[in-house]
Amino acid sequence: MVSTLFKLAICFLILRQGAGNFNLFLSQAEVRKLMGLQAELYYVRSGVINEYAMTFVVPVPAQVHKLHFTWESLAGRPLPYAMSVNISNPSALTSSLNVSQVGEIPIGGVQTWALSLNCGPYDAEVDLALRIDVSRSRYNTTSVVLRRKKICLKDNGYPGPEEVLVAAPGSSSSGQIFYASIGCACAFVAAICVLVIAYYVRDKKTRRHRDPLQESRGLSSACSVERGAGVGPAQTFLPPETPPPLSAASTSSYRRLDDRPSRELHERIQEITVQRCRVRLLSIELEGTFGRVYRGSYHEEGAQAPRDVLVKTAAEHASQSQVALLLREGLALYGLSHSALLPVLGVSIEDRGAPFLLYPHTGYRNMKRFLVRCKLSSEGPPRALTTQGVVEMALQAAKGAQYLHKKRLVHRDLAARNCVVDDDLRVQITDNALARDLFPQDYHCLGDNENRPIKWLAIESLTNKTFTTASDVWAFGVLLWELTTLAQQPYVEVDPFEMAAYLRDGYRLAQPINCPDELFAVMAYCWAMSADERPTFSQLIVCLQDFHTQLTRYV
Ligand SMILES: *[C@@H]1O[C@H](CO)[C@@H](O)[C@H](O)[C@H]1NC(C)=O
Ligand SMILES: *[C@@H]1O[C@H](CO)[C@@H](O)[C@H](O)[C@H]1NC(C)=O
Ligand SMILES: *[C@@H]1O[C@H](CO)[C@@H](O)[C@H](O)[C@H]1NC(C)=O
């Protein structure tokens, strides 16, 4: 035990990343104003640039005349900066800053500054780029370029009561720094919102007539001509009369002018849009109160034979916000490719049918169900997983999570229920779409209306709703615990309302029976009170790999 702890400590020391030296982000109120989302958006966090967020051109609606940015130096000294604004059409828009163009990022707390945008007397769409160069050392300058597209409307040219928009209910913690859960995920979610809306608008326009809900036995021959037949035997889907109330609803005010970004995004969702009639549902895998997971088959256009898929969908009585959430969460891993991730394969948000998400199905099943089945194995005693098996599964999950973090995504809900595993113990992390509905015992509301995986949350996520790579590491510790206990409920004796106090007092999950000290030490590290003291996934992988080598040396 002692030697393992020592070894862990050494590998953390070796791998610890150099501390970054400044933050640049948009406050929650600002993100809400521009994108309608409840999160902070970090452009630079601890000196690391969020490349994904940087590529996103944020549309600035006509009624917004001021952009706010927040920064702070973490270097222990003020950091010199220089900034400049580049406007594509200076006759249509002028700008001014309320900080000096050359100065220092202060230490000892955040500073917010504003870029005022003053439209000229005519309608226009103006691109602007704000470039900030920060000197981190004499030889090292970090440059970021933040792009905006300002919509100017003749009738809306005067600074109006924009602050009204900012004062949103529920953003009570404006002064608090939420370590933006998601950095780029935030931009991505915004992107998805815009694109879902764009898609709906397009689809409404091209709708020819209302398709009766049909029974489709297999693949309809009309498939390539007419979309929108029913999905599978007698499966009725929710007809969305109106687009789901996505949070970026404010886009409507400028979509008219601002068509380009949404068209690009729209193309992206089109890439994975599948025709409903090419999907056939076979059997129900998991069922919740409004969501279902089916096994099915999908006959891709031009493919020889249909392929097996999993279909996540909402039931008829699902509310629009549940549907919106399904899409938003389901697309969280879209576009990623890693052997330990299960990203969405296709999506359907056709008019007149419940939206659904398609995932490749290659013998994987839900890990939580799998573990429970191991425990309740009908043939005699529980089919124990060997320690080696557990470590191998944990390693794969850690590699999937490491990849996510490299892509600057925070999963926020790592747990056995959000992984799949096959008979060869190959593991993939999935998104958490429908998990609340399919595993209701794993989620609790603490007075607010938000159903959260309380027992998997890091202390700071519980108390401040802060989500970071370090809170993913905490959840991974609980996932390890689930693996070694064959999916027992964590902290089963603790009231969800008491969890924060319980953790603050230093209590943690107990060492499971049969769990080797080395493995428990890894979990315990994941649950360090301070986020900085938790290992990263790269460190976890080294340590788990080490332990795995030890285990296999003697067999
Ligand atoms: C301003 O932007 C234009 C086009 O985006 C570019 O050609 C030009 O070099 C930029 N000017 C500066 C000073 O960055
Ligand atoms: C700039 O203006 C905003 C209000 O628009 C204010 O919140 C902020 O404190 C100002 N910053 C500075 C450095 O004066
Ligand atoms: C500048 O800092 C970054 C981040 O710390 C580092 O990756 C890079 O190598 C540094 N460049 C130089 C020239 O020191």
Automatic annotation (TrEMBL):
Residues 279-551 form the Protein kinase domain. It is found in: Cell membrane. GO terms for molecular function: ATP binding; transmembrane receptor protein tyrosine kinase activity. It is a single-pass membrane protein. Residues 1-20 form the signal peptide. InterPro entries: Kinase-like_dom_sf (IPR011009), Prot_kinase_dom (IPR000719), RTK (IPR050122), Ser-Thr/Tyr_kinase_cat_dom (IPR001245), Tyr_kinase_AS (IPR008266), Tyr_kinase_cat_dom (IPR020635), WIF (IPR003306), WIF_sf (IPR038677). Pfam families: PK_Tyr_Ser-Thr, WIF. This is receptor protein-tyrosine kinase. It comes from Neodiprion lecontei (Redheaded pine sawfly).
